[in-house]
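Q: I have two molecules that I believe assemble together. Could you output structure tokens for the complex as a whole instead of separate predictions?
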Amino acid sequence: MHDAQMDYYGTRLATCSSDRSVKIFDVRNGGQILIADLRGHEGPVWQVAWAHPMYGNILASCSYDRKVIIWKEENGTWEKTHEHTGHDSSVNSVCWAPHDYGLILACGSSDGAISLLTYTGEGQWEVKKINNAHTIGCNAVSWAPAVVPGSLIDQPSGQKPNYIKKFASGGCDNLIKLWKEEEDGQWKEEQKLEAHSDWVRDVAWAPSIGLPTSTIASCSQDGRVFIWTCDDTSGNTWSPKLLHKFNDVVWHVSWSITANILAVSGGDNKVTLWKESVDGQWVCISDVNKGQGSVSASVTEGQQNEQ
Amino acid sequence: MKLKEVDRTAMQAWSPAQNHPIYLATGTSAQQLDATFSTSASLEIFELDLSDPSLDMKSCATFSSSHRYHKLIWGPHKMDSKGNASGVLIAGGENGNIILYDPSKIIAGDKEVVIAQNDKHTGPVRALDVNIFQTNLVASGANESEIYIWDLNNFATPMTPGAKTQPPEDISCVAWNRQVQHILASASPSGRATVWDLRKNEPIIKVSDHSNRMHCSGLAWHPDVATQMVLASEDDRLPVVQMWDLRFASSPLRVLENHARGILAIAWSMADPELLLSCGKDAKILCSNPNTGEVLYELPTNTQWCFDIQWCPRNPAVLSAASFDGRISVYSIMGGSADGLRQKQVDKLSSSFGNLDPFGTGQPLPPLQIPQQTAQHNIVLPLKKPPKWTRRPVGASFSFGGKLVTFENGRAQAQQGAEPPHHVFVSQVVTEEEFLQRSDQLQQVLRSQGFVSFCQKKIEASQTEFEKNVWSFLKVNFEDDSRGKYLELLGYRKEDLGKKIAVALSKVDGPNACIKEGKQESEFLPSAGGTFNISISGDIDGLITQALLTGNFESAVDLCLHDNRMADAIILAIAGGQELLAQTQKKYFAKSRSKITRLITAVVMKNWKEIVESCDLKNWREALAAVLTYAKPDEFSTLCDLLGTRLESEGDSLLQTQACLCYICAGNVEKLVACWTKAQDGSSPLSLQDLIEKVVILRKAVQLTQAMDTNTVGVLLAEKMSQYANLLAAQGSIAAALAFLPENTNQPNIAQLRDRLCKAQGQPIPGQESSKTPYDRQQLPKGRPGPVAGHTQMPRVPAQQCYPHGENPPPPGFIMHGNVNPNAATAQLPTSPGHMHTQVPPYPQPQRPQNGWNDPPALNRVSKKKKMPENFMPPVPITSPIMNPLGDPQSQMLPQQPSVPAPLSSQASFPQPHLAGGQTFHGIQQPLGQPGMPPSFSKPNIEGAPGAPIGNTIQHVQSLPTEKITKKPIPDEHLILKTTFEDLIQRCLSSATDPQTKRKLDDASKRLEFLYDKLREQTLSPAIISGLHNIARSIESRNYPEGLTIHTHIVSTSNFSETSAFMPVLKVVLTQANKLGV
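A: Yes, here they are, computed for all two components at once.
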């Protein structure tokens, strides 16, 4: 298994795996009902991503087979609605843009390119591609939350807010790059964030909680997790803070919805939870070591450790 | 895809994995001459900069050397983990010399870059390898069967691995074993490979296929399997790679025949043992899986042969190949588009060759013909299978409601090809215990309406005076005579005041008593009786008299005022009627300058607005008191508001907070929120809780006392309430979040949150589904196909069970919540074998969910037992099936899965049933061979964090197995261990009396599963196995002390990590057995 994602409501779980399948489970009320077993990929499926429910029940998946497939539930049946074959190598990451922008999917691939699929209606998807975004591969893409410049000022009602679309990507060139859509609709590299000394495995832009600060978490093959913050309005000065240096590859970072907890998934099948303390230091608040079961067994409340 | 190229005819060595940035060292090749036939030599270092899109590699340093090289390696000797030093470059030269270079000095441009040199070898040194365990050890091979082991710390005198092999032959390759540090292999063009044991100082095995056609050009050990290695043959008649296993050294385990002509070099990826590179005289570079023989990738190369090929140790997708056409190329095996790069290359070629005449023939070269190159496949496909390093082993993602979805892949890749089991865990992350607790309390108060006692508790618990005041004010709202009590809170008790006045009057002078609140009416001097004289003289008195006598009150009053006879004036005015009195009051107040005049003014004129608007803010208490005393109900709120607003806008920070009290009096929730937010840091959950408590209580009060409709919620309050609801939701308290979310508001964010909360609860509010969703959502049609009906028939678990935090915050600690049914997916996979691929059923068949694999009652039971976490330990799998096979339809449906019920019984969490069954079952199970695996790794644990975990909770709500679960049987010869240990535990259990011991034993029985796992995987070392058998024997003979001694011996002599999972519990069992004398 390579990914497991809940939908917007936390009632459906999508998983994907090396057996080329994408599965959807209904997990309401603690149950688990397999709703769909989606077949269409011809290689291991790396990631799945749920679109916002305002567009219906839509799931995107990406695979080593170089394809991105967008699945849709119509009349209770899940079907492939679109297949994107614009990449020359494994597609490693898919991420839906904030729903305010419409239905836009960013895909990062080992061919080094990032493609952006925009739904233009009537089953049509427009493709924009950023070639050579990360030499020898893009491993992760993550959208910035939808923030209107000076969002505290009320927008003229009825007028569509003038969003600045941005996303972050991380790749095998050890870099994190920030991309911004120009007024002409072209995507430009806005920033290069350098701190990792090995592949960037994942990037995660923190959800907006109404503060002017932007935050990105990144993790790498080099075992490091950085928290990048940007306070200035122009969005140009990013400063990294080392959250922790792990002894093994860190594969995945995920922000809680309220953006105050970061889940870090590393080698050794370890998941740790981190929270920023009042003085700005990142503290590990939980260290879950599943799958080992060996060394110090479970130290559970009310159960003494027999060892 | 080609990434970089360097025009050199050279041997190459990548910098060690620790090094960052990545360097590639090149040393002029001794065997191949470049196009210029130059005989000069150099050692160069290039940097691999992947952020630079061009094909050029950045040259960092060049060192002009007197040597040409047969072999170049870069060892990590003396590098620390941070890669501060850059290791050592070791070069094999033409005349028996080995030279050590310091790469950091080369990069720095130093002249003296040679660390040491030794020419002890005979002939060219073609073979070099660094021991990966002791990086100071280097093996080298040259002519005359010479092999030396060099210690870089003592380079002068090399060692030999043993006596030279006969007949003397050239050594073409040496390689250290990747698993066992003292094993070395060497190979020669004659085709023989020799494996040396440096401890014994002799060759231990010789490998040869006796074909006489194996001309070894390459030798590599398996990165993971100690006894396996590959040999590559240069001979065109036998262009093969042979895979050998030393345990069966009579013939190759596998032969890879993928090249058409002789193989010149091989390289085995350390990052993925399924990737072996080979390049040959057929001008191909292939990447194959030596474990299967399958070719996974063919690199797009030009038509030239490559004589050297190397994986980059740090970047596992990168490799370099040196070709006879004088070029070192760096490739990625991940495929990709080379369009941009290729064009550059064409341009560069054109420009550099252009019209030049490189060979001095006097004739310019004909125009370059390069159509092929541009037309060639621009898209390079990646490897057929994804390399190991792309497979994410673990991942955790947050989802709505503070749930953390975690998946992990089984720790060991199952050897027999069976997929390791996969589980998805859904955990509840709770970080704000206190917040939840307080929120829960608040909800209880709302339910029980016990506001007064709640406020009282808050008052008692208040840390600050202000907090206390606020709660006191809030409390008053629920009491009778609230205004009077407010006054008391402000420091004005009517009784106290009466006493004070009495005291003041009894003194001669009562100059203070600053505000007397119109209580002075008793102060009339008794006019003594007797006659009085009416004077009509010309002075003021006379004039007044005259005026009075003529009934001209107005003039009389004016005269009195003029003469500063205020009291007279007022008295006269009273007699003169209402109008005159009012006028006189005005004139009086205009004239009077006393401190309290304005108060009196307000009291008399009933102009409280004036006070509130113009009083000194330091006297806000007094102003508020006055308002409380005098204001009419209809203006009361407005006045309190007004005062609050002034405090807020004009006062200093201290006064600003006091505005809250005014707003509480006013019952103005919205302003209270605004003021509080301004004064407090509202971002932390607890401070938000502080606010919400007050707001909620105040709203209740307003509802009770003023009978106003307070359901309408202002923007700010709505925002705060939704923040609060968001926080609750993030902690998993969906129901509570929903309860606190304001109802009558159309704000989109709140509507969206409500929608999300409702849906997250799994029970959309009827009627709201279609009409009130905040999005234009396409709803599913009502008439669903049959299978869906199956879903709706499923009994629903009440929401509380799903979200246990909603009402009752859990005890701290880590609680495994319903491992719902680990075999669920197992159960449904075999029911439709093959169908998944061919016909893609969109839904499971309707009866399937009813097979019990999603049986909610199981979850119920688990939930109720959450205080006994030990019950969630995986059961002993082999003994348990017998407990629960009846009545479980799966066991009949799926005979190949006899142990499916095992996890079910664990679900039920009956404390001990699996222990009773004994081991009679494996007679049945053995032939079936696939005992179900309990989710042994689903037992999570919280450990001490790198920092210190701050009492947080992750709670596993459910665990979803989604892949097939299989397990190997315990080998027959070791079954005795399991039966003995379990039998012993049974005996102990039956004679143990106290529950503590029983629980210990119970637990031990479960933990011994780790041992059985290891037995199944056959990963235990023979020493431990034999020790365990000895223990088993001593158990048989009831000699527990002996067992314990053996135990101690095993623990002290074995690898801790190998035994730590089960040895301690074994000790517990032995000790107990000894104690109980069973």
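A: One point stands out. The two ends of chain A are 33 Å apart (CA to CA).
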